[in-house]
Amino acid sequence: MRALRYYGPKDLRLETDLPEPKCGSRQVKIQNAFVGICGTDLHEYHSQTFIPKHGAPHPLSKESAPVTLGHEISGTIVEIGSDVSSSAELKVGDRVAVFPLLYCRTCEPCKSGFLNCCVDKGFLGLSGGGGGLSDYICVQPEAVFKLPDSISLEVGALVEPLAVAWHAVSQSAISASQPSLVFGTGPIGLSIIQCLKAMGAGDIIAVETVPRRQQLAKEFGASHILDPAQVNVTDVVRELTGGNGLPVAFDCAGVPLSVEVTTRSVCARGVIVNVAIWEKPVNFALNDLVLYERKYVGCLTYLLVDFGHVIHALRTGHLKPESMITSKIPLERVIEDGFEALMNRKEEHIKVLVGLSATVLKSMF
């Protein structure tokens, strides 16, 4: 079996003679079709943060580097374990998206239903347990979400980042027709714009410097595009809102300017939702929160229900994310045309999908 293995920063190796994973009696085996390269994958490529270092295995997977990458996964079921309940309503040949979160089921957050807050949480494709950038993966049946016929396998690989966005918008508690601000319109920011529109939110102000991303933000429904290198975003927001500010802002950039702008752009008692993963500590003027009773909300990944909501919205046409896909590449080109392209040609790409199966590869070329 082929798999892209992570040994350390800038040390990715495409191995071609690995054994296929064996499907356990309570597992489902999937032939991977498309896998998106995520911003987290790029962070790990540059500097190892979440992937367990060699000799320090993850508490759930019991694995450490090298691990197989890829957690934005679509594919086709090829085997179902003998003890998988018929209530799962799964069958060989089903096209699916994969919920990649690893969780212990026993800690207080897990028992309360907040799997994303598990004290030992991890991810397929980052923490061991297999990954999407391989020919096959075996997962628990509850991690498998069937795709309706109307949803392609390409779009199926976008369910995971869209679920991040759906969860963030849900956490914001934004009301119908309320305006908002999205700082950073990479894949997650663009997904948030789409989810805001799907949930009936009002005008959206997008903050972005890259022209291609500005264009897509507008296509997906942003009513105003602000370049922070050209304007004082907070001043413009105040002008647009009659001096009041916005009820909700989303930080998808994770840079000092984004935390300042999102905090100062919301109204008194407004909500700032942080979706970004920060690479280093940042100075934060807490009085910007305290003096106006603003709320700063940390938001991490998703719950199982978010995957269901996203697939429903895709099926009904409320989400149409296809134009986020800027490139489809074979696994053999994943480093040069995937990781390196996303890091060095940011102005060209949003979401790069890696095609795995032979059928998929034929459809790509």
TrEMBL record:
<dbReference type="Pfam" id="PF00107">
    <property type="entry name" value="ADH_zinc_N"/>
</dbReference>
<dbReference type="InterPro" id="IPR013149">
    <property type="entry name" value="ADH-like_C"/>
</dbReference>
<comment type="similarity">
    <text>Belongs to the zinc-containing alcohol dehydrogenase family.</text>
</comment>
<dbReference type="GO" id="GO:0000721">
    <property type="term" value="F:(R,R)-butanediol dehydrogenase activity"/>
</dbReference>
<dbReference type="GO" id="GO:0034079">
    <property type="term" value="P:butanediol biosynthetic process"/>
</dbReference>
<dbReference type="InterPro" id="IPR002328">
    <property type="entry name" value="ADH_Zn_CS"/>
</dbReference>
<dbReference type="GO" id="GO:0005737">
    <property type="term" value="C:cytoplasm"/>
</dbReference>
<keyword id="KW-0862">Zinc</keyword>
<protein>
    <recommendedName>
        <fullName>Enoyl reductase (ER) domain-containing protein</fullName>
    </recommendedName>
</protein>
<dbReference type="InterPro" id="IPR013154">
    <property type="entry name" value="ADH-like_N"/>
</dbReference>
<feature type="domain" description="Enoyl reductase (ER)">
    <location>
        <begin position="8"/>
        <end position="354"/>
    </location>
</feature>
<dbReference type="InterPro" id="IPR020843">
    <property type="entry name" value="ER"/>
</dbReference>
<keyword id="KW-0479">Metal-binding</keyword>
<dbReference type="InterPro" id="IPR011032">
    <property type="entry name" value="GroES-like_sf"/>
</dbReference>
<keyword id="KW-0560">Oxidoreductase</keyword>
<dbReference type="GO" id="GO:0008270">
    <property type="term" value="F:zinc ion binding"/>
</dbReference>
<dbReference type="InterPro" id="IPR036291">
    <property type="entry name" value="NAD(P)-bd_dom_sf"/>
</dbReference>
<dbReference type="Pfam" id="PF08240">
    <property type="entry name" value="ADH_N"/>
</dbReference>
